[in-house]
């Protein structure tokens, strides 16, 4: 089967590998040439992923039979609708359905309308006075969010990026003045985790849980990034998530897919639930309408069912199964010094892939060009896969030693100490 992959990051490198390993003939359109993806595909077209007309023309030129959309930006542009109108099935939600990610107020309203478990108290404001008095009456710490895509920036939480509710009101006012509206939610305390599922619009198949490390620096310090790394465990749960928490989170995702169907905005593709495990239950912080990056690199390398079989099931409405190896994974991203605020660009890094493989680790390329010059975002990820988290972390760390340059990474991703910290936070919150 000829498959077009749209996107050129680390997530897409993992998708490309899984498609090719499953027997697909791969074509790619992305903004830059990703050296890891280039060696997997028959042809590589350069274009902005959001230039839907160009991407479609490329797909038609090569006669692709199916398209897989990696990032959210082309979904927001309606790439799936355009491809399907032109007879090419595409993995990913329609523009309307992608609003679960691209419009945070839409996501909250769907959860409210269909009484989906795991929802949070929220309000959308267009009026500064109403916003101020609601926050005053509410009295507890809030989260302030722009409604649209923010690329991990823009969301501000009292106690973290905002000092108190007074500062939250100022920030919310600035967003109303800029965007015309703002979303204000209750703050939920706990530990975050990622739950991704495949869905054909009816059937929902879970993937192993993962935990992302969004902060730039060790000890969960520094600015929020796209994610500096992530881990998953051999039992497909996380050490602080109980079976009951898991069932509740899965119910939330299944109920969301059902609600989208009832709402007349059926959802197919990958649904990513970013959950906050609170004292009483997992609550949705946000939905994403695509694989996580880095979390795709946790789940796809251990996928046993061929990915082409799954994606055909998604587009045909006949999704059957997706099985994963019982293995732990640790993904560590290497980013240019200064990332995310002021990254070094254009500087070459040295990567001894042979040595990395000797350590048993894998490499997925992201924001580097064909000459391994850094383009400004996360450059490459090194992944360890093993029977235990400890061993997977050891392998990823050993692999990283064979990458040299003006880069940094978080050595604490997936370490015993950082995982235990999260377990402790949950125990304290639950009074155990
Ligand atoms: N790791 C967060 C995301 O993919 O949005």
Explain how this protein is built.
By secondary structure, the protein is α+β, with helices and mostly antiparallel strands. It folds into 3 domains: about 1-95, Rossmann fold (3-Layer(aba) Sandwich); about 120-185, ATP-grasp fold, A domain (Dna Ligase, domain 1, 2-Layer Sandwich), CATH 3.30.1490.20; about 190-420, D-amino Acid Aminotransferase, Chain A, domain 1. Helix content is about 35%, strand content about 25%. Strands 12, 15, 18, 20, 21 and 23 form a 6-stranded antiparallel beta sheet that branches. The relative contact order is 0.13.
Summarize the structure.
By secondary structure, the protein is of the alpha+beta class. It has 15 helices and 23 strands. Bound molecules: glycine.
Summarize this structure as a short list of keywords or feature phrases.
five-stranded parallel sheet; 24% strand; Dna Ligase, domain 1; globular; Rossmann fold; alpha+beta; 3 domains; 23 strands; 15 helices; D-amino Acid Aminotransferase, Chain A, domain 1; six-stranded antiparallel sheet; binds glycine; 432 residues
Bound chemical compounds:
glycine
How many DSSP helices?
A: 15
Coarse structural class: alpha+beta
* Number of DSSP strand runs: 23
- Strand composition percent: 15-25%
Rg measurement, Å: 21 Å
**What CATH first level of the largest domain would be assigned?**
Alpha Beta
Residues in helix, %: 25-40%
CATH architecture of the largest domain: 2-Layer Sandwich
Task: Average the pLDDT over all residues and give the rounded result.
Answer: 97
How do the helices and strands line up, and which of them pair or pack?
Elements: E1 2-6, H1 10-21, E2 25-30, H2 35-38, E3 43-46, H3 52-62, E4 66-69, H4 72-76, H5 79-85, E5 90-91, H6 99-102, H7 104-113, E6 122-125, H8 128-138, E7 142-145, E8 156-157, H9 165-179, E9 182-186, E10 191-199, E11 204-206, E12 211-212, E13 215-217, E14 221-224, E15 229-232, H10 243-262, E16 269-277, E17 282-288, H11 296-299, H12 307-316, E18 328-336, E19 350-351, H13 353-358, E20 362-365, E21 380-386, H14 389-400, E22 403-404, E23 407-408, H15 416-429
Helix pairs in contact: 8-9
Glycine binds next to loops.
């Amino acid at each position: 089967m000829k498959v077009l992959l749209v996107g050129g990051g680390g997530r897409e490198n993992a998708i490309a590998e899984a498609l090719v390993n499953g027997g697909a003939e791969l074509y790619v359109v992305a903004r830059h040439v990703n050296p890891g993806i280039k060696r997997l595909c028959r042809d590589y077209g350069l274009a902005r992923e959001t230039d839907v007309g160009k991407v479609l023309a490329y797909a038609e030129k090569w006669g692709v039979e199916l398209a897989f959309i990696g990032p959210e930006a082309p979904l927001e542009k309606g790439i799936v609708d355009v491809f399907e109108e032109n007879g090419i099935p595409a993995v990913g939600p329609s523009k309307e359905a992608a609003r679960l990610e691209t419009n945070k107020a839409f996501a909250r309203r769907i959860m409210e309308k269909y009484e989906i478990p795991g929802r949070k108290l929220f309000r959308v404001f267009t009026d500064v006075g109403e916003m101020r008095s609601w926050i005053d009456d509410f009295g507890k710490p809030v989260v302030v969010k722009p409604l649209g895509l923010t690329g991990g920036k823009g969301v501000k939480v009292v106690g973290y990026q905002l000092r108190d509710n007074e500062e939250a009101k100022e920030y919310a006012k600035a967003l109303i003045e800029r965007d015309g509206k703002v979303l204000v939610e209750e703050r939920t305390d706990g530990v975050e985790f990622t739950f991704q599922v495949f869905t054909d619009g009816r059937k929902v198949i879970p993937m192993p849980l993962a935990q992302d490390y969004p902060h730039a620096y060790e000890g969960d310090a520094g600015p929020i990034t796209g994610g500096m790394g992530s881990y998953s465990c051999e039992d497909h749960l996380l050490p602080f998530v109980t079976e009951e928490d898991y069932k509740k989170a899965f119910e939330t995702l299944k109920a969301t897919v059902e609600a989208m169907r009832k709402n007349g905005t059926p959802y197919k593709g990958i649904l990513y639930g970013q959950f906050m495990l609170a004292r009483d239950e997992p609550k949705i912080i946000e939905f994403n309408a695509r694989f996580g990056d880095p979390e795709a690199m946790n789940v796809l390398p251990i996928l046993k069912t061929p990915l082409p079989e799954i994606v055909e099931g998604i587009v045909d409405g006949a999704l059957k199964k997706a099985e994963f190896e019982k293995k732990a994974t640790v993904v560590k991203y290497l980013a240019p010094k200064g990332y995310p605020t002021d990254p070094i660009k254009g500087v070459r890094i040295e990567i001894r892939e042979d040595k990395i493989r000797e350590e048993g680790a894998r490499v997925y390329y992201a924001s580097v060009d064909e000459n391994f010059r850094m383009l400004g975002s996360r450059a490459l990820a090194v992944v360890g896969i093993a029977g235990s988290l400890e061993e997977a972390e050891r392998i990823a760390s050993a692999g990283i030693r064979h990458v040299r340059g003006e880069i940094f990474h978080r050595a604490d991703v997936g370490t015993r100490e950082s995982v235990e910290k999260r377990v402790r936070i949950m125990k304290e919150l639950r009074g155990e």
